[in-house]
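Co-fold these.
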Amino acid sequence: MKFGLFGGATAARVGPDVDSAQGYNEFIEYNIEAEALGYHSTFMVEHHFTGFGQVSASLNFLTWLGAKTTTLRLGTAVLVLPWHNPVLIAEQTATLDLLTNGRLDFGVGKGYRYNEFDGFCIPMEEADARFEESIAVIKKAWTSMDRFSHEGKYWRYKDIVVEPGVMQRPHPPIWMGAGSESSIRRVAELGANLLLDQFTPIEAIGEKFAFFRNEVEKRGRVFDADTVAVARAFYVANNSAEKEAAHERRLKAQRRLTTISQTPTGDNKASILSFSDTRQASEESALYGLPDEICAKISRLEQLGVRYLLLTGGGIRENLRRFAKDVMPVFAGRAPATSTKNVSPAV
Amino acid sequence: MKFGLFGGATAARVGPDVDSAQGYNEFIEYNIEAEALGYHSTFMVEHHFTGFGQVSASLNFLTWLGAKTTTLRLGTAVLVLPWHNPVLIAEQTATLDLLTNGRLDFGVGKGYRYNEFDGFCIPMEEADARFEESIAVIKKAWTSMDRFSHEGKYWRYKDIVVEPGVMQRPHPPIWMGAGSESSIRRVAELGANLLLDQFTPIEAIGEKFAFFRNEVEKRGRVFDADTVAVARAFYVANNSAEKEAAHERRLKAQRRLTTISQTPTGDNKASILSFSDTRQASEESALYGLPDEICAKISRLEQLGVRYLLLTGGGIRENLRRFAKDVMPVFAGRAPATSTKNVSPAV
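Predicted complex below.
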């Protein structure tokens, strides 16, 4: 079982007397320690115009973090393609991949927050088409050694070669969040890796995992369990009061995000919004509790085939350390427990 | 006299067996050593689709370099605004400024290379209007603590607050290249700093410097000589054969750039192209030769009021060291020689 991190720093813009670098600096130190503790990766969000300072320039932030670390993989989760010129993204990601000696995990999405579409004056209805055009351009830009042109609905380029080249060949891993069967099928079609969200209950994670494996194998490819990462909130508590407080913090944060994301007419049906702000979702999905409770939940995920968790814990340093000390060793180097269908990449 | 660097790395995309990271890594080591040797800053180009691997994602590259250094100021020279979404640039530059504790020098331009406009499918005639709209949005995004909207010709935003905030208040220094009187006047109008190019002969540099100082003072501001940086090619030679070879290398490189930049009809009138590929320009402007020759040229610039040089030397490590050893000490902490009109910022 591999353990990575998922989240982001904040740098609120609250006034001239406040050091807005503090949140960024603390998050960097948190990740440097995570690498030393044995965490495999860090996946960062990209968000805009929140008013509470979520990371906006995630590729720049990850470049800095890459320079301060040596093995930690650096992921976006997710970079929202509709906001960006895809050729500039291809250049920026290739630069990051090259400078970090191939540590980029390129997580991409279509966006789900109304306030961001509204802020950029991009209609939410264009999200799918913009995403599809962008990812095609980016893959072409990364992989084409020859000059090419592109005439799309949103972007046009003439006789270009995109430099620098990427370090990871043929290109860095692409990760996509998906929840519905049709979305998961599309991830398999694109040959991308799958991100499963932090709110889906464990049994449902097992179903989605199996569905994706089947979609990959149906296409004649060997399935690798490392190509699925499951996000989970984590908090190693000393007692039930601490656990309870962690649930309350989480629900409060989720309600704030739901408010930002909703459309004026309340018709935003993004799967991430449908289940994320209930106490039930928090209880069932979160790795909150004493180490034994947490290990029991991870063992259930392991039995369902899961081999890669992305942990989100709000940057609490003590939590990071306790998980590394009390939970990670239980799963270190452990052979797959009951999974029979997991096929190693070498077969 | 302050000495900074101007240039960029290359990472050619020549094939699967070539380590394209090598050029990037060498340039990073070059700049780390430059900081240790006392150089003040490094200004990096941004270019696209050259086929010989000039840096494209300069803000990402500078972020990495910022993480590897502690005092070196990090400049773009220039970031070409017409290629970019200005709000994304405001976010990326603020992130860099915050992470580096305020070391960003934001050099901007309109672009002059035909192959880039053509590659991005942006008409060259739109360069001025795109530049003006972008710089206004970026300044607003950096400085506005309140949400704002923007309805421009090229960009629209609704009710946004741009995060994170910048470290340098009210915003990082803006640098603009200019050559003609009208362009220099516009730099003074915008309250920006002035970049003078590497090809203009020394006496003409003095005229442009004096013109800018006058334009600044006419507007009731105190002129600070540190707000003008003069680019110069540099090469500390052991003998005349080495000097001659350096001139030849420089002319060859310039001709390659002129070819890329020219329009199909040959009507690109950018000032940087008009004089840059002649031997005469190279002789008159470049700081090539024995240390005494170079010091004599710098003294002439100093007498004309210049206090800040940006040196471009193709990344030759030995050249960087010899200049620091044989030339920089001559000008270290030296009081202004004959300039009478130079006004210190404290006056």
